[in-house]
Amino acid sequence: MNLIFTVVFLLFTGNLFGILTQGQTDRKDVLEVFIDKHQPHQDTVLLRSSIGKDISLDKNEFFREDFYIVERVRLAQAYAITLDRLNPTSDTLFKAAIQTALLIERRDLHIWANLAYGFYLYTYRLPAKAMPYFVRVMQEIDQLPESSIIQAADSYKKMAYFLTTLGDQQGSIQYLKLAQKHAQPESIALGDILNSIGRCYFKLQDYKQADTYYQQALKASQSIGDYLREAKVWGDLAELYQVRQEFGKAEQALQRDISLSEQYNNPQNTMYAQILLAK
């Protein structure tokens, strides 16, 4: 039984923390399992109760402070999802998590919490307010080994998306390639990352590299049946073919984009592809 499976099994059965005192697992593995278990897409009362039950299992208190930081971030995200807007409760919870991580010198969680708050502000179209948090993460993330970064693929990807917004395609590629390195093979995340690298190269007018990564993204999405991502890649390939004046291939790519987008109910992507096709 491998390490991650052991951690997951023990956490869900309530036997994790007696084992931890024997040094048989790793703190980062425990934190990532705990974070993955407590997703913010649920009622805030249920989320608080679920996290509280797991925290109470930690009889030796070794992870209690860490889990309280995770709890505040997850609750902050849950309130934002429930209300679908910026809100003072989420702001307070994010800031409390960041401050606690700083006070108890949990550098990995300090990075994770800052990134979560910055991405929350960025999501609700406040890039100027998000900037200090992303800058702080950039200053800290390179000081830790990659193996210490919590949810490394997702963390590096979020950094890349913010840099893309600022027009820093090279910086974005750097973080996306780190995300690619840590992404699970045959995962939805991997197709998204490869597609994003292709778009960065496209914006840099490096069409050969863009094509290479689009083709990798297409293969990755097809291999796991991620048809919505596949549709988006066909759309990106169509734009690339248009730039190359390969109009027949561009039309075929857009037709595939539209077909998949309609079949899997993505009206926004369908409309965008139809506009490109009309041109």
3D architecture notes:
The protein has helices at 3-13, 16-20, 27-37, 44-56, 64-83, 88-103, 107-123, 127-141, 152-165, 169-182, 188-203, 207-224, 227-243, 247-263, 267-278. The protein has 279 residues and is an all-alpha fold. The radius of gyration is 21 Å and the shape is elongated.
Rg from C-alpha positions? 21 Å
Residue-averaged pLDDT: 89
As a percent range, the share of helical residues equals: over 70%
Number of DSSP strand runs: 0
Main sheet summary: none
Which word captures the global form?
A: elongated
Strand content: under 5%
Q: Helices and strands, in N-to-C order? A: HHHHHHHHHHHHHHH
Helix count from the secondary structure assignment: 15
Termini, distance in Å? 55 Å
Question: Top keywords for this entry?
Answer:
279 residues; mainly alpha; 77% helix; 0% strand; disordered N terminus
List the helices and strands and how they pair.
Layout: H1 3-13, H2 16-20, H3 27-37, H4 44-56, H5 64-83, H6 88-103, H7 107-123, H8 127-141, H9 152-165, H10 169-182, H11 188-203, H12 207-224, H13 227-243, H14 247-263, H15 267-278
What's the short story on this structure?
This protein is 77% helix and 0% strand. By secondary structure, the chain is an all-alpha fold.
